[in-house]
Amino acid sequence: MFEFIPLSEMSKNKHETGDADVVRSRGIPEEIAKEAHYREIRPALEKGDPSVLHEVNECGILLQYLPEKLRADHFIVLGAVKNDPHALEFADKKLRDDFEIVMAAVEQWGTMLSLASSRLQDNEDIALMAVKSHSYALRDVSSRLQDDESIVFEAVKRNVNVMEYASKRLRHDKNFLNKVSLLKSKTDDD
Fold it and tell me: What are the residue ranges of helices labelled H in the chain?
């Protein structure tokens, strides 16, 4: 169990050792210690201080605190997204159109496709990886790819409920629906 530390005491001791050190020395769980550390370095991140940029690779969501110029840096954003795909939300708009960065995000969490450029939402490789990672990414692929049997089938293999995001043509295509029902009956038998 850890003891409660009033914020006033934490602030008082901060000048001596830093929030994170105070928290760790009191036996507080590591996640809370990390939060204290991130609060401590936030001003340096906001200034783009090179001495703390490595922190973004260890906690990708910290990308949100970097200056705009650094959120447009390919390597910084790629490192952040590889650590946490949600960091894509804070990437410069141009980098949401970068194949390598978007692929790194959707590989881990397919629904990050919603943050990608429309050009990449229409890319077969990105879309396929996204639906393999998370079937509900089908709602974020382009309408052209929502009509692509291989991409829709890949999503439906994982979750038949995503069929609602398929094109109207596929939702009414008897051959495609038979293929889906065979898949469903095969998984029901297993």
Answer: 7-17, 19-25, 30-47, 54-58, 74-83, 99-108, 118-121, 124-133, 149-158, 168-171, 174-189
What tens digit of pLDDT does each residue of 37-91 get?
888 989 998 998 988 889 999 999 999 999 999 999 999 999 999 999 999 999 9
Integer CA distances (angstroms), 144 to 6, 82, 119, 129, 157, in order: 56, 28, 11, 16, 19
Residue ranges covered by each domain of the chain:
1-44, 48-97, 108-190
Q: What are phi and psi of 92, to 5 degrees?
A: -55, 145
User: What is the rounded distance in angstroms from the CA atom of residue 18 to the CA atom of residue 12?
Assistant: 10
For the whole model, what pTM was predicted? 0.79
Supply 13's token pair. Answer: 């001791």
Cα pseudo-dihedral 81, 83, 87, 88, rounded to 10? 20
DSSP 8-state secondary structure symbol assigned to residue 173: -
C-alpha span between 24 and 15 (Å, rounded): 15
Cα 70 to Cα 65: distance, rounded to the nearest angstrom:
10
